[in-house]
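INFO batch 0412 | record 1 of 1 | parsing
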Amino acid sequence: MGVPAEHILSDNAHERSEYGGETGNLVVRFPGKAGGPHRMFSTHMDTVPNAVGSEPRLVGNRIVNGAEGKALGGDARCGVAILLAAARALADRVGDHPPCTLCFFVQEEVGLVGSRNLEVSLLGEPLPEECYNFDGGDIELIANRVIGTERMNIEVRGLAAHTGRAGQGISAAVIFADALAGLHRDGWVGEVSRDGGWATSNIGVVRGGTGSNVVMPGIYGLAECRSFDREFRAKVLAAWRAAFEGAVRRANREAEANGIRPAAGVSFSPGPEYGPYELPGNHPTVVAARKAIENVGRTPALLEDRGGMDTCNIVAKGIPAVGLGMGDHQAHSADEWIDLDHFRDGCRVAIELALGGDDS
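INFO prediction complete | emitting tokens
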């Protein structure tokens, strides 16, 4: 598109990622004239693993998937395409626009890792005053209130024994199951609505064991809790820790009563975390998004997002941000599809905001 190489940058977010990787975030700078706010536009480049092998097909005014059982990967390939449309419009204007920065994040799907590790200095000085992150469905929706998430690693230790002498071991699997069953029974799993608070919690990864002929000596689980209330989120995770500690105590008491060394234990460590946030409806970022959406003939509406998005980390770095739609629906599923009307209007909204056609 003719963007000078010195304006195309990348950071080392992957080197600070728990997952490794081959490249960091891509940042593209478009220095502009004074007079308008420095605006940032972002999306993420990665898709869910199930999108590998997708076969996009045009059917009427939709893009659908021809590969059975696969996700389409419109999340967030649509966002990437929208930012490229904005980049082309900016390149064609050769500086006759307010300053803009485009940011393509890596590793969003595994916990907003790219945005968490963004090298903020690459965004320029002063930092962007507004950010618009494309990662959603209908273009009318403005995500100005986004949930926060905290993950927790759980390591349960048992005592290995040959299954022929199973009575001499302590099964980590049984401890894990005991704790999880208690959490489910007491209302701490799934949607948690109690004591005046609201959250969701889940155990999404479980790994353990060495073979069917060995009493399981250890098991690992990755849990998460999402809430708009940090204090209630902490309360839910405290209940999870108490449940596992209680299950370990019961297992050790039973083992000791049977003449077995009480060797069971559990440890916890934090996983990736991002906090909730809310921008008021009269914030300049929200107002500008509203007007740009109205200018493409749509009726904007504010959205409370319960999935979490890169905007959480962007706001934490001092840049007010909202999430905008890009036409993708039923993301991550085999039924994912793209509404081309909403996608095209997403491009129009991004271009208008980037060129400063709506300075508010």
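INFO post-check: The chain has a mean pLDDT of 93.
INFO record closed
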